[in-house]
Design brief:
about 0% strand, 17 helices, mainly alpha, Tetracycline Repressor, domain 2
Length: about 325
Amino acid sequence: MAATIAGSAAFRHQQPMTSILPDAAPTNWVDRYAPAALWPWLKLGRFDRPTGIWLLMLPGWMGLALAAAMGGRAPDPVLMLLFFVGAALMRAAGCAYNDIVDRDIDAKVARTAGRPIPAGQISVKQAWAFVIGCCLVSLIILLSMNWWTIGLGVASLALVAGYPFMKRITWWPQAWLGLTFNWGALMGFAAAGGAPGWPAILLYAGLVFWTLGYDTIYAVQDLEDDALAGVKSSALRLGAQAPRAVLAFYLVSFCLVLTGAWIGGLGPLFLPPAALFALHLSRQAAKLDVTDPAGALALFKSNTWAGVILVVALAVGVWQPGGAF
């Protein structure tokens, strides 16, 4: 154990500014195309790892698609663009805030020791300025929407603020991340359809369990380091039972989403892509191996496609040949 901690510390001090962080793709656009002076800032906001942007943005698109389908129309492309930009900025702000809070823990974990703050590339004050800047631009986007969306957007800040501390007090920080990351489903529905009703609430609840599953998969990467650093995760709590638990989380997720679609009156065309979504999730659980961190990362990243499939399912639910869903 001491050797592992020492190795993590050595990794942090030897990590050059130009090196690719462990959970970023070797071909990521930041390291290949962005000016070197921007690398620490773009990596602070995790722009070299776009999977998180998609996973934060897609619930917003799902809410937009559900509200539009219930209203007999296609999702508004302008709202979809605004939710994409807002998600990218708020994810960047959230990551930077998380790194500020977790800077001492990150320094002890090999996967995170090279991040800009623990690596000494960006100061805490500079990181706070980055957070404030991203939030201000996001606020401008939020203020262009209706009051329901604005109110939900402001309320989400409490979830964002609490997330970095969850790993210190509960084995289930992944559940809190689910509450936080999928809040956009309620906001998307509100932006396109007004006050969220049961279909939107059930969609949100289903997506919380989706995140609980995929972030448990993600946490498999850090089993040893999290244990040494003294922080908690669902993967640590579940151990060898993680694959079965992930399957159970995904089953609950699918049932809740399906119920929300049924209450919302979506058409039968929702079902084929929804079944593909369920198949994708079950495949992840079947392939999860808690002794294979690289495989867990690949499974986690595949949730981008799972989310896109569900967006399509909700969007095509607008068509109702032969009557209601």
